[in-house]
């Protein structure tokens, strides 16, 4: 994960992992105007085509990353077994791949996931709300709100390049 420095200009939206403490953030609802909602609820209330929440439960997301790592490790074991039987390539998804490349790609993916899991766990120790969202690049109000909150230290923006 990397700290996000800005919005992507050649896309309709930008994805972020945002962390904050719920007691620090109290915003007016963009729909009804009632006060006291958090940033997560604020973004959910906007709910347009290019602004949405991908996941909101960090523990479930960490479990999904760990499950994906286990799946990749199982694939690597299968690829190693094929190598022991003398195979050097495998046909997958209408393409032929070298087994060594597939093992290398899986190992890189697993390492990245482990880094992401460690970062999420350490972030979770200091923040009670962590979620991933997509923010519409045409929504200047929400972009400015997020930028201001990050500058003030009220939120931390983490970005995963997967």
Please provide a written account of the structure:
The chain is 47% helix and 22% strand. The model is unreliable at 1-5 (pLDDT under 50). Helix 2 runs antiparallel to helix 3 (99-126). It has helices spanning 39-46, 58-84, 99-126, 140-152; strands at residues 2-3, 13-20, 52-55, 89-92, 95-98, 129-136, 155-159. It has a 5-stranded antiparallel beta sheet, sandwiched between helices. The chain has a two-stranded antiparallel ribbon with strand order 4-5. It is of the alpha+beta class and 162 residues long. It is elongated and about 65 Å long. The chain has 2 domains: 2-58 and 128-159, no CATH class; 60-120.
Rg calc: 20 Å
Structural class call reads alpha+beta
| Stretches with pLDDT under 50, minimum 5 residues | 1-5
Question: Beta fraction of the residues?
Answer: 15-25%
How is the main sheet built?
Answer: 5 strands, antiparallel
According to DSSP, the number of beta strands is 7
Strand order of the largest sheet: 1-7-2-6-3
In N-to-C order, the SSE pattern is EEHEHEEHEHE
The number of helical runs is 4
Oligomer: single chain
Overall geometry comes to elongated
Distance between the termini: 9 Å
Please state the average pLDDT score: 86
In helices, the fraction of residues equals: 40-55%
- Total number of distinct structural domains: 2
């Amino acid at each position: 994960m990397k700290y996000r420095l800005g919005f992507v200009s050649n896309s309709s939206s930008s994805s972020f992992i945002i962390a904050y403490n719920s007691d620090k953030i109290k915003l007016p609802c963009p729909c009804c105007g009632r006060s006291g909602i958090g940033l997560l609820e604020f973004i959910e209330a906007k709910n347009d085509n290019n602004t949405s929440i991908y996941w909101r439960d960090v523990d479930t997301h960490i479990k999904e990353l760990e499950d994906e790592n286990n799946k990749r490790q199982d694939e690597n074991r299968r690829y190693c077994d094929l190598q022991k039987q003398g195979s050097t390539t495998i046909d997958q998804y209408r393409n032929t791949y070298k087994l060594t490349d597939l093992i290398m790609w899986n190992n890189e993916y697993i390492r990245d996931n482990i880094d992401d899991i460690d970062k999420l766990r350490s972030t979770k120790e200091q923040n009670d709300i962590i979620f991933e969202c997509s923010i519409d690049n045409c929504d200047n109000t929400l972009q400015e709100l997020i930028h201001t909150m990050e500058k003030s230290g009220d939120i931390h923006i983490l970005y995963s390049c997967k």
